[in-house]
Amino acid sequence: MNPVIEARGLRFHYDSGFEALRGVDFRLEAGQNVALLGPNGSGKTTFLLHLNGVLQGEGELHVCGLPVEPRHYVAIRRKVGFLFQDPEDQLFLPSILEDVCFGPLQSGLTQAEAEARAKQVLEQVGIRAGWERPPYHLSGGEKQRVALAGILAVEPEILILDEPTTHLDPPARRHLLELLQSLPQAKLVVTHDTAFAKALCPQAAFFEGGRVQAQGSTAEIAARFHWDL
């Protein structure tokens, strides 16, 4: 089976000259959940930004069998769904329903088709009423669920989550965990929340100095690099 993400010798330096990625080798299989652990500045977010072409470095990188290069950006960006650390960065339309409809409409669905899909995924994430409400009226956990619904509405093959528990209280963290566990997509989760990582991701990769220093079970990697409290 072909991996959904495969990087070989991926390198990238910023205009300042700082080399953020120094030969990253990484592989993610379909349906696999992997946590990306490591200190701030180790290259995790830089790596994620290569997966939909926001940044482009040197080396080999394929997503869902496509080389990550400009001619494939549109197709790749439909396959990779990003959930940002702050869901407010993804919610910008006057109502919940309009926000979740945005992606399907951009991908060519009719208004009726987009609304049907939006309602389906809102039900799936547990937002079953009040779809006419403005997103800013929602709690942090509800905003996270609506942002995730907007991603799921475009039917990605990969979910990428950047510090998804930062703004969530313990019940909202638990609800997000249960929801993500129920989804079939492959997932990459950048987090410092080791308990959440262990619960969601059987496997982890540890970034340090712009490289993947180790891969293995999440519990093993957290223990090896003293990444628990």
TrEMBL record:
Domain ABC transporter: 5-229
The entry's keywords: ATP-binding, Nucleotide-binding, Transport
GO molecular function annotation: ATP binding; ATP hydrolysis activity; ATPase-coupled transmembrane transporter activity
Regions crossing the membrane: none
SUPFAM superfamilies attached to this UniProt entry: P-loop containing nucleoside triphosphate hydrolases
Domain of life the protein comes from: Bacteria
InterPro entries xrefs: AAA+_ATPase (IPR003593), ABC_transporter-like_ATP-bd (IPR003439), ABC_transporter-like_CS (IPR017871), ABC_transpr_CbiO/EcfA_su (IPR015856), ECF_ABC_transporter_ATP-bd (IPR050095), P-loop_NTPase (IPR027417)
Pfam families per record: ABC_tran
Any Gene Ontology CC annotation: ATP-binding cassette (ABC) transporter complex
Record flagged with keyword 4Fe-4S: no
The family this protein is said to belong to: Belongs to the ABC transporter superfamily.
Protein name as annotated: ABC transporter ATP-binding protein
